[in-house]
Amino acid sequence: MRLDKFLKVSRLVKRRTLAKEVCDQGRVQVNGRPAKAGTNVSVGDQLTIRFGKKLLTVRVDSIAETSRKAEASQMYTIVSEETLSESSSDETEEVS
Fold it and tell me: One of this protein's Pfam families, by short name (predicted)?
């Protein structure tokens, strides 16, 4: 399944167009590598998503074309959730 669709169906991101934009900005990694919206996602893959000052790492547990709200949270397991400090985000911006 495409990465942007997985992010939307699993409700990690609210809309698919927003998921595509997040991927295109380089804020999503699949198994430690930067990923584009069309990257294939499989069960067992590890996704790292940067939301502002939050870094969320999840493991893909299942894939479904559609899901209800109650089923969406069962599609992934949160591995870690970090809050980024301002100094580390400033350093990242300077390197870019």
Answer: S4
* CA dist., res. 14 & res. 7, Å (int): 8
Strands 46-51, 76-83: pairing is unpaired
pLDDT recorded at residue 86? 66
DSSP secondary structure letter of residue 10: T
Burial 43-73 (b: 16+ CB within 10 A, else e): eebebbbbeeeebbebebeebeeebeeeebe
Residues 60-81 pLDDT 10s: 998 888 888 888 888 898 898 8
pLDDT in tens, 16-28: 999 999 999 999 9
Tell me the domains of the chain and their CATH numbers: 3-95 (3.10.290.10)
Three-state DSSP class for residue 11: coil
User: Taking the mean position of all CA atoms in its chain, how far away is CA 88?
Assistant: 20
